[in-house]
Automatic annotation (TrEMBL):
Entry-linked CDD domains: TM_PBP2
Name of protein: ABC transporter permease
Family label: Belongs to the binding-protein-dependent transport system permease family.
Transmembrane segment boundaries: 20-43, 165-191, 198-220, 226-245, 276-298, 333-356
Length: 364
């Protein structure tokens, strides 16, 4: 005899599975998360920040191919496997786009790649400069699926590596906002009175300041950088969580199970953490999904303004900032591709938020 659980958790999970766009967004976010973690494994340019520049092939269209000569460096870089996997390869070798080459008497003669019908400079290199005599192994045809940016960097690699910032800022910002928002909202809703008045005053003051200006102020106070942006965005998003938690606790603290917990002599901390919060987390989960999307947009805006992730770190917002003027120069894909990435990631979080709202709605 099989037993089918009719718990609220199981019912919510069943309703979520029936939502096509919610399930699709869930798997899409898992894919983006895996790409973010292992970006340097799948990126064609696995150098740190995918920052291998080739100015002679800048702003090339998607699908561009060129012959690339790799000149080994005399300096050895020591790096372990985990560092290469998660932070990219410290590449000291020099890559040179070439149009033709030949080997004459232990001398490699090659012509550098040039655009607009120009002829590149002819240069020579001793074959003994390479670790072994098979020079052809250092010459290969490279394809740029998304083309190259204005510095000649592989745009696909920059997009893949840039996904890490946009994806993980959502997690860090939501974690900080939940940590502060749930604490402040719980204190305000449960104790009321003067505690509620003080916390609500703080919430209203924080909410009255435009989000972008507040983030800019916090970022300037903490300094420009990667983690500073994460913290700044998180510190500005807790007010919405606090208001939701406060309202839910005000309603829940009059329920019979809370009265029974008080009669049993449980502490206020246990009543809030063990009895009230588990029963009001549904709307908090939904607003957290919306905050994911908001954090991504705020970070992109900060990077566009030059306050977010600093060069040479890859960021979708910074990529749009570097190439937005190319929209009118006949190469709009340089700004449109990272823009579509931001749009798709934000849309996925919004769709999964809507699916969670429908699944956790007890009235349906």
């Amino acid at each position: 005899m099989s037993y089918k659980s009719n718990s609220l958790k199981q019912l919510a999970l069943q309703k979520f599975r029936k939502n096509f766009w919610g399930v699709f967004s869930f798997y899409f976010l898992i894919l983006v998360g895996l790409v973010s973690i292992f970006a340097y494994v799948v990126a064609p340019d696995n150098s740190r920040y995918a920052n291998q520049m080739h100015l002679s092939i800048h702003s090339k269209k998607p699908g561009f191919k060129v012959t690339m000569l790799t000149i080994p460096s005399q300096f050895k870089t020591e790096q372990n496997t985990l560092s290469k996997l998660f932070f990219g390869k410290k590449n000291a070798d020099t890559e040179v786009p070439i149009s033709e080459y030949r080997i004459d008497d232990e001398v490699l003669v090659y012509r550098e790649y040039a655009t607009d019908g120009l002829e590149g400079v002819v240069k020579t290199l001793q074959v003994k400069s390479f670790p072994h005599e098979d020079v052809s192994s250092f010459i290969e045809e490279k394809s740029f699926l998304f083309g190259t940016d204005k510095y000649g960097r592989d745009l696909l690699s920059r997009v893949l590596v840039g996904a890490r910032i946009s994806f993980f800022i959502g997690f860090v910002a939501v974690f900080i906002s939940l940590l502060i928002g749930v604490l402040m909202g719980s204190l305000a809703g449960y104790f009321g009175g003067r505690v509620d008045a003080i916390i609500m005053w703080l919430i209203n003051v924080t909410w009255s300041i435009p989000t972008l200006l507040l983030v800019i102020a916090i970022t300037l106070a903490l300094g420009k950088g990667f983690w500073q942006v994460f913290i700044a965005v998180g510190l500005t998003m807790w007010v919405e969580v606090a208001r939701v938690v406060r309202g839910q606790i005000i309603s829940a603290k009059e329920m019979q199970y809370v009265t029974a917990a008080r009669a049993l002599g449980f502490s206020d901390f246990r009543i809030i953490s063990k009895h009230i919060l588990p029963n009001i987390m549904a709307p908090v989960i939904v607003i957290s999904a919306a905050n994911f999307a908001a954090a991504i947009l705020i970070e992109s805006g900060l990077s566009f303004l030059g306050i977010g992730a600093q060069p040479p770190m890859a960021s979708w917002g910074a990529m749009i900032k570097d190439h937005y003027n190319y929209i009118i120069l006949g190469k709009p894909y340089l700004a449109i591709i990272p823009g579509l990435c931001i749009m798709s990631l934000v849309m996925a979080f919004m769709l999964i938020g809507n699916a969670l709202r429908d699944a956790l709605d007890v009235k349906t």
